[in-house]
Amino acid sequence: MSRRHYNLPPLTTLAAFEAAARHLSFKNAAQELSVTPGAVSHQVKALEAELQAPLFQRKHRGVELTEEGEALFEALATSFSKISLSLKTIRDRQTGDTVTIGSTSAVASLWLSPTVVRFWREHPDVNVNQIVNDRPLRGIPDVDFYIRYGRERDARVEQTELYRDHLVPVGNTELADKLTGCPLEELAHQRLLHLESDDKSWTTWADWFQQLGYDGPIAPGVRVNNYAVALQAAQDGVGLVLGWQRLLHPLLTSGQLVPIGPHVLAAPHGFHLVGRPDADLSESARLLRNWVIDEVNRSSGEVS
What we know:
The chain is 45% helix and 19% strand.
């Protein structure tokens, strides 16, 4: 007789493995689970010992899943998603009609939160929860959908491209008056505000300069891990931030930040609405999803 009803390894080892496989990082998995990287590694090794099969290839700069690891991760991610959906359904029966949408802090403050407020005014019976997180949002429980720059690798989610932005240096009025029209080499030697993010899909200053044809040195500048902080620093004259023209529309129209042309790059990726398959969404979630898409379409003419 099996010592466990479902003949499963301890659930702590499965949870640790799933988080590590989703992030492809023991460190990021540990942060999510509020444990140490060593604890995650210990749980994964215990699972590998029980299965008598390696699940990760340990490399100098990280880890990769083995064939067995890929198969197990797919099964666990699907199962955990179904469990999460069942739990959400039970919670919603107790708390009323609730939808949860996620985004980065900058997307929330500059665009999504005002959109949600307008939705509330039209649909006051729907409770909309917002999760603001500047780390990757994939896999966070109870999120119906979230805004992401670039496509998600997970083929099980629905993805709708909302729009594709343009990237231009922005600063306060004083810096804009001084630098507008200057060559890329001169821009590269200004004090640049570099955004450091766990989500590697975001376009960086190095990416921007390279794609515009400049491959020379770039000033190290100032590094921050929050885009909203970088925007405030730019408004205060600390330096230049890489600006998303459509996302920053409120700040650009008010003159709080000024684009420094003529160098503009079409963003390599679009902003996407990523979420559960349509069949797994509640009627209220589908209502909010369609509202967000319609808001983007309505505002296209304002910023074109």
